[in-house]
Write the C-alpha cells for this entry.
Amino acid sequence: MKKLLVISLFILSSSSFANMDFYMSGHMSDEFTTYNKNLEMCDNKTNKAAIEKIIEKNIKNHFQDLLPALNEKRIKIREFESDDYYLKTFFKLGHILKDRRTYYIDLNTKIYSCAPSLKALEAIVAHEIQHIQDYRDMNSLQLIKLGIQMIRKKTRSSYERSTDFSVMKLGYSQGIKEYREWIYKRLNQKSLNKKKCFYYTPEEINRYMQGELDFSDYFNKYCKFKSRD
C-alpha cells in the first residue's frame, strides 16, 4: 500500500501541469511565437506585491474557505525562472495526508515584464485559486485519483473547463476572455489547439455572457485534432 501511495504521488506530481493555466508542454521558445522579439505585445507589467494583493482580494471576495490558510501563511508564492511555464498551483506533497495543507502558487518572474491586463490577471489568478479550493476540499485518495486522471486529455479538459466555468460564474468572464485573447497571440498552432481543447475559448465565453450554458459539444469541436503528444 505504501509503495502504491509513493507511485501515485509521483504520478500526481508529474501530472501537476494539468493545473497550470500558463503551462505549455515543451519550452516556451518552441511553443510561443514571440516572447523577446515583439516587445509591443508586452504593454503591461506586474510584480510580486501586486500578485499577492490579487490573491488576497480573490480569496476574501470569493474563496472564504481558504481564509484560514491565507491568514496562517499556508498559501505561498514561490518565484522562479523557467522557459516552461509562467504560473502553476500545487500543494506540498508531504502534506497530502494532512488536513492543514500548505499550497503553492509558483510564479515565473518573467511575467513581471510581460503580463496580461489587470482584469485578465485577476481572472487567471482566480482560476488558479479555484484549483487550491479543490485541493482543500479533497481527501488524499481523491487528490491521487485526480492526479492520475489528469493524464487523460478528456478528463483534463473537462476539469480545466469546469474551473473556467466556476470563475466565470464569479464574474470573471470578461477577464478570462481577455486572458485567452492575450495568450492566443503568443501561441503557435499546436499550442493554440491544446488551449482551445483544455479551456474556454473567447467565442464560447461570449456565448456564455449572452446566456448560453450548454458547451457539451466542445470536445468534438476543439479536441479532435492530430497531435504528436
Observations:
- The beta strands are 75-80, 87-91, 103-108.
- Residues 2-223 form one domain.
- Residues 153-184 form the longest helix (32 residues).
- Residues 32 and 187 are 5 Å apart (CA to CA).
